[in-house]
UniProtKB/TrEMBL annotation:
Cofactor or coenzyme needed: NAD(+); Co(2+); Zn(2+)
3-dehydroquinate synthase C-terminal domain span: 193-342
Annotated PANTHER family: 3-DEHYDROQUINATE SYNTHASE, 3-DEHYDROQUINATE SYNTHASE, CHLOROPLASTIC
Catalysed reactions listed for this entry: 7-phospho-2-dehydro-3-deoxy-D-arabino-heptonate = 3-dehydroquinate + phosphate
Pfam families according to UniProt: DHQ_synthase, DHQS_C
InterPro entries reported for this sequence: Dehydroquinate_synthase, DHQ_synth_AroB, DHQ_synth_fam, DHQS/DOIS_N, DHQS_C
Name this protein carries in UniProt: 3-dehydroquinate synthase
Gene designation per UniProt: aroB
Length: 378
């Protein structure tokens, strides 16, 4: 890092993800997009990139990126997809790969994903498949993608049989996180990403959760130092788990805290915007702690703190009603049983012995689960 600098963008904070010869850096700072050419240059195999972004992000941030690439003498093409989950499809994947081939991308060309998790997952998978694999750089622009999807190397698309069922593990060569891009994100999307930030504290970092209880409101309101610190802590947490368990045999499953409940809620509510993923995870984390308390694994005060903090920042903590009707307990439980993480008929739950003490278990008494779900939807 530069010793003294008046320009914060000149000295991003760096975090190394250790994965042997696939190790990479995560750079975090304000205004990094404006220096993207210089920051990316060391990992490029040729002075040429192929950018993938969506219409919304293109309108807000693509110009800054291309200007920075021009300034560094890096040639660029761009492919712009429609915003939204529907773009993580076979059809978009095919069009994108054809556009890359039409632009005569080479093995040494680097794919740059500029956008949220949709762009990152799609572009990363395209990079994994193009010419049997080219390098890619993540430039995540949502809080969720900055703290979660851009780190870890999972890429992919959705299918008629379920979300994220076709894809590849393909690690980026670099992750460039410009905290300024969050300035254009709407509050609801920001909060959804914040739920995943809280998750890292709840899994194994009680001091981080305490910090969020104190500073979370400032972070959400736009405090750059708080945002930068929380993103760094979150990426370090995810990187640590991924380095220990790159392909999800064990520990990586802890990252699913709140997700078994959350996925069931998302499935019941449909993916039409009633619940964003992070909102479902917030409710799911509350339910996981309530279940843990009900099973006497976790102090009731800890479950209450989780609920209180998420509610205080404006996240939902109880399942929504659909057209006035409460969600159906049996249907939610049935969704959990069909989750793709089920092995030999048993659902793996992430429960907690307290804040920062999450663990995996496949023995949850069905009556306790039912009682927790029934109470949540009541
Ligand atoms: P997203 O990519 O759909 O972005 C949300 C919305 O914000 C979009 O409309 C987008 O156009 C807009 N947007 C993005 N950046 C913006 C900015 N700076 N200013 C204004 N608007 C902006 O959604 P997401 O929440 O970032 O990501 C969700 C996706 O990530 C899902 O498909 C999910 O499956 C995936 N995901 C992947 C992993 C992984 O490990 N690969 C992990 C978690 C989630
Ligand atoms: Mg998630």
């Amino acid at each position: 890092m530069t010793a003294v600098s008046a320009d914060p963008s000149a000295a991003p904070e760096t975090l190394r993800v250790d994965l042997g010869d696939r190790s990479y850096d995560i750079l975090v700072g304000a205004g990094l997009l404006g220096g993207a050419g210089r920051l990316m240059a060391p990992v490029l195999r040729q002075k040429r990139v192929f950018i993938v972004t969506d219409e919304t992000v293109a309108g807000l941030h693509l110009g800054t990126l291309t200007a920075a690439l021009d300034a560094a003498g890096i040639r660029h093409d761009a492919y712009i997809i429609a915003p939204g989950e529907a773009s993580k499809s076979y059809a978009t994947f095919e069009r994108l790969l054809n556009a890359m081939l039409e632009a005569r991308c080479e093995r040494a060309t680097t794919v740059v994903a500029l956008g949220g998790g949709v762009v990152g997952d799609l572009a990363g998978f395209a990079a994994a498949a193009l010419l049997r694999g080219v390098d890619f750089v993540q430039v995540p622009t949502t809080l969720l993608s900055q703290v979660d999807s851009s780190v870890g190397g999972k890429t992919g698309i959705n299918t008629p049989f379920g979300k994220n069922l076709v894809g590849a593990f393909h690690q980026p060569r670099l992750v460039l996180i410009d905290t300024d891009t969050l300035g254009t994100l709407d509050r609801r999307e920001l909060l959804a990403g914040y739920a995943e930030v809280v998750k890292y504290g709840l899994i194994d970092d009680p001091a981080f959760f305490e910090r969020l209880e104190r500073d979370g409101t400032a972070l959400i309101a736009g405090d750059e130092a708080q945002r930068r610190a929380a993103i760094l802590t979150s990426c370090a947490a995810k990187a640590r788990v991924v380095a220990e368990d790159e392909r999800e045999g064990g520990r990586r499953a802890l990252l699913n805290l709140g997700h078994t409940f959350g996925h069931a809620l998302e499935a019941e509510c449909g993916y039409g915007g009633t619940l964003l993923h992070g909102e479902a995870v917030a409710i799911g984390m509350v339910m996981a702690f309530d279940l843990s308390a009900r099973l006497d694994l976790c102090p009731a005060e800890d479950a209450a703190r989780v609920r209180a903090h998420l509610a205080a920042v404006g996240l939902p903590v109880t399942p929504p009603r659909l057209e006035g009707a409460r969600l159906d307990t049996d249907r939610l439980i049935a969704h959990m049983a069909s989750d793709k993480k089920v092995a030999e008929g048993k659902v793996t739950f992430v429960l907690a012995r307290g804040i920062g003490q999450a663990f995996l278990t496949r023995d949850v008494a069905p009556e306790a689960l039912r009682a927790t779900v029934a109470e949540a939807v009541a």
